[in-house]
Amino acid sequence: MNLTIQTATLDDLKIADTITMEAFVSPSRYEALLQGLQLQPDGWFLARLDGEPIGFGGAINYGPFAYVGQVGVVPSAQRRGIGQAIMEHTIAWLEGQCCPSILLDASASGVGLYRRLGFVEDDRVLRLSREPAAYKAPTPVENVSLLQMADLADLAAFDAPYFGAERSAVLASFLERFPRQALLTRNAAGQISGFLILQTSPVAQSLGPWVAESVAAAECLLQRALELADPALQVQVILAHANRDGQELLGRYGFSAYNELHHMHLHSAARRQRAHFYGQASMAFG
Hints:
It contains 8 helices and 13 strands. By secondary structure, the chain is of the alpha+beta class. The protein folds into 2 domains: 3-99, 3-Layer(aba) Sandwich (Aminopeptidase), CATH 3.40.630; 128-279, Aminopeptidase (3-Layer(aba) Sandwich). Strands 1, 2, 3, 4, 5, 6, 7, 8, 9, 10, 11, 12 and 13 form a 13-stranded mixed sheet that branches. Strand 8 and strand 9 (192-200) form a beta hairpin. It is globular. The chain starts with a strand and ends in a 7-residue tail after the last strand.
């Protein structure tokens, strides 16, 4: 068995998309893969077995921590140690950059591998959805506006203490992709109190990144996002289990959990305020 792992390039995107569709039995992730490669050009890896592309994965390095995601192997090559090899390659790359903490969200089928690699669970992650039949016209809100590029510096400063790192490049990339669905709310003093980006695709919609200083701010953003959402499509959200207010809020708006993942870290635990995470950007971006 001749296994090679190399840094992926833009020329590998279609191959990587095919791998992830087969590995996760999911629709195309091409735009998300492109976004990840543009944000971290040196952090995504393509595995080949005897010259054939069979695995993909990588990470975004935020500095204080990195987030690993999109690690998948085509079904015909699974259970042969290839996923572990991709993870070991990714970990070695991050350790070479002196990254102090490596985070990921593991499925039930993957958690054993990550534990063998030294990852420790410190929370759970809930994946929730709201079916089209649950749609109900929300109450209009007035203190929510569209996020503008001019807000980016203030937004990054608001977000960093909660997220645990500066991620203005990631936020800018989502704003560029979804400019009419990037929402911002401010408190009575005019300061940012929360933001939410409604991501859309032909088959589903997702809420996140979504961070708020209070459940009241989070609810205002949720109401406006549902006002913008296509009522014919499912709406999904990835919620930190530590955010109990978020669970109650989403339950009131017709969301229910359909999957639970293990939030894990390698080396030191990252300092983040997960109780203010109402929606992750994605499984790969955190």
